[in-house]
Amino acid sequence: MLLDRRPKSLTWTLPWAYLTTGDDPGRVARRLVQNTGAAPAMPHVLNVENAFEVGDHFLDITYRCSAERTWKPAPTGTSLWWSLDEISSMELATRAKSAMVTAWPQLWPHL
What we know:
This protein is α+β, with helices and mostly antiparallel strands. It contains 3 helices and 7 strands. The two termini are 14 Å apart.
């Protein structure tokens, strides 16, 4: 699982990006994975949720995407790869937990 640390926080969340009119969300998702030095396959939509935080409206689109690790340093970003075992002991953002439970229901008791 690819997770990103929230700025000025110990909380981990899913990597994210802003979309502008005409952006293809799938391409943006691939770029987030490529920024870690991995070669992603074509992402598939796993879940879509509306979210409201501090007066802002978000559309969370969670993708499932296999990726072949190229084992080179990430050129940009703060995202790191974690195993499912490691994730169960991390401090996660609520929306990240929701996305993971949708992807892997067997994680529910552990998050």
